[in-house]
Amino acid sequence: MRGTIIVLLIASLLLLSCTAYAQEQGSPDYEKIHVIQLKYEDGTYAETGQHVQYGKAPNPALMSGNLRAVITDPKGREISTFFLMEPGIAIGDSIDNAETERPILRGYLERSTAADMVITLPFMPGMHTFSLYSVQTGTHLVSVDLSPSTAAFCLDFPGDPDCLPVTSQGNTAAQEQTSGAAAGFPGIYIQAAALALLIVAILSSYILMRSRAKTVAPARQKVLVVDDEPLIVDLVTVVLQEQNYSVQSATGGRECLEMIRKMRDLPDVILLDIMMQPMDGWQTLRQLKADARTKNIPVLMLTGKQLTAAEAKEFNICIEDYLMKPFGKNKLDTAIKSILHRRKNMQSTLALARKAGVSRDMYCEFAKLSRHVDVNRKMIGLLQQTYGVPDPDRAEMTEADTVIWQLSTNTREKEDRLEQLRREISSAFLAKGYPVPSLYD
Amino acid sequence: MGTLLNTLRTKGAALLLLVIILIPSAVTAYNNSSLALTVKDAATGESLHGAMVYLDGRFRGVEESEVLVLNDIPDGSHTLRITKTGYRDAIKKVVVPGAGTAEIRMEKGSLFDLSGGNPAPRGINIVFIPSGTSYDCSARTKIPSTTYTTDETRFREDVLNVINRTFLNLEPMTSPAVPLPADYEDRFNFYYYYNASEPADAFSGCAGRVPDSYWSEVTFADLTVILYPSYVGQYNASCQPAGCYLSSGSGRRVMKVPADKPSLISHEAGHGLYGLVDTYCGDTYYYENAPNANVWSSLGSCTTDAARNNRNATDCRLIEQQYPSSCTTQFYRWDPDPDIMRDAQSGKFGVAATQRIGYVLEQTGGGRS
Lengths: 441, 369
Prior knowledge:
The complex is a heterodimer of chains A (about 450) and B (about 375).
Chain A: H1 2-24, E1 32-41, E2 44-54, E3 67-72, E4 78-84, E5 89-96, E6 104-111, E7 114-122, E8 129-134, E9 140-145, H2 147-156, H3 169-180, H4 187-214, E10 222-226, H5 230-242, E11 246-250, H6 253-262, E12 269-273, H7 281-290, E13 299-303, H8 309-314, E14 321-324, H9 329-355, H10 360-387, H11 399-431
Parallel strand pairs in A: 10-11, 10-12, 12-13, 13-14
Antiparallel strand pairs in A: 1-2, 1-7, 3-4, 3-8, 5-6, 8-9
Helix pairs in contact in A: 1-3, 1-4, 6-7, 9-10, 10-11
Chain B: H1 2-10, H2 12-30, E1 35-41, E2 51-55, E3 58-63, E4 68-70, E5 76-83, E6 90-96, E7 101-106, E8 111-113, E9 124-130, E10 133-136, E11 141-144, H3 152-165, H4 170-173, E12 188-193, H5 212-217, E13 223-228, E14 242-247, E15 253-258, H6 262-272, E16 295-296, H7 299-308, E17 317-318, E18 332-333, H8 351-362
Parallel strand pairs in B: 1-7, 9-12, 9-13, 13-15
Antiparallel strand pairs in B: 1-4, 2-3, 2-5, 5-6, 8-12, 10-11, 14-15, 16-18, 17-18
């Protein structure tokens, strides 16, 4: 062990020398952009090209409009969201005093049914898919897989820090600094640093493996499936067991509550069907949320083929997410993994938040609102697909119109509060140099 | 040691992966191929100093003398990237071992920083480009204009004048009821792009056309402003200047404006930068630009928003007829008249519009240090 420490010290000293030398030479700039080209024609969007290049990006947060752009990582988790205006709409204004006493503004709108669109994004490691949605209807318009152009870029620039195989942040930085000095730094030091790194890596991996060998395999995540259709319960159980979850099941709301009452270890996630007799999913959910022991268990609601307005009313109870039947194996797996990932992330981000001076209450409110807004947005889109966009000034509003209207108003209020929290938390994180937490992560 | 050997045997694959990841640094040190690099100005052929050199995306040093020698390059094809302030990035493929030398010729860039070389990190990037066309009120047609293409100083002066009278003149143009960030001026980064042989055309379509060379160099503009000189001839009742805004994606927001009409420029900036919607009734584009909207798709939405922001809900009103007389809309407004989103001659941004401007400015995260 003493030997390892000496090697580590030598390696650190060598790297420090390299760092100082590289800094004297100027600081390297690796800023990159991901450029996506889209073709818009008669209401449809199609990708026509994409590439990654060195350069600076605009600030997407400054934009607004009727299109919602979402960037996700390979696991489908949102990295960032911003808004865009529909392409092909030119808003013209001219001053006109031909027909009035004083000059007025006259509008002239040019609207094309076909237009090119270019989206320039700041490159972020881990960005995998770019998707575009209509804000008004929630309709998915286009998705672009970003990985081919990142791979093409890395073929030309394999030494870029974002292309290097990263074992840890420290390693990438070390490689960058070492190479920064390579132009004129005596080769013997580079060789020594490289060999020292190699030795450190081998010894570290040896120590790591030994320590890992002693640890116990992590406990399997527990899922409770509640549905009164035995076939669904069986199918879901088989799928989840394949994914190494520990699965328990109940065939009704009462049985679910009874089982949980007797459990010593609570489930990590509950999958709860809405349509059950005699106690339906909403009644069960209310009881779960009213009990201090169970209120923090994330609940994934399983809904029917079409979301009804009556169901939508109930969604004001905070749920983690919902899945619409019929759902595939992948959707189920992704939904559960996202929930568990968020839970896990929450712990580490809470620790950062504390260090950044953000109170636990504020951060928890932010996380809870993020989920609520995300679920509501999806739901508004689904309802509008079924019932259309409501007009509250219409003489007679249907029940669905009222629900959509209330849900939209409620969501907008939450979004405003969420935006306020996001700004406060972001500035606290940025001030400390921490990465800004993603909205839905 | 026995345990170490066992671990090496059982965890061989993981260890091998680590070695593969780290071995290139070690191997590089033993490769003796080298490349002598010279960097020159493409137009004058003079040597350039201070260029930063990257090999395969990895920083290798700064070109401080006539020749920079890069050592320890593995045999094969490599990509060189050279950057220098004021020049366009140069990318060149080289093969090692080859001639052992490479010459990079860098072209001067056409982008000029007006923020003193200290841009706000997440600031609003506004780039001006001159138009090579204007409009003739007598002939009623667009005409070529050399006002800017032959006089960079004149263009630069007009740009600075526009900046000071519009983007940095928000206090008198906005509502004091919703104070903007005190450092809002520091949240802007201004640039101009000047290539006399490739100007923009303000009169190609509604919002004008920007040359492709501009987009290859300017990737980061939050707003591109095509500035055109005054119309030719006297303005009269039926010949008044126009502005237009078109968004074709992030980094591709363009507005064309006349240099001599600051109030119209502020109105177009309302569209192009702050996402504000026209509050006059006419042939324009309405949508509820939440959050912090200045136009709402229903009375209920407007009154709810007004109540939430402590504004008088009874001031919500339908966007009324103005021109043409048959105009009707289903959208609502709140801001009092004269409202610059309705009247670009004498209006200012009302409380709702100012709130939206403040919201956009907040997205920058703060000004330059």
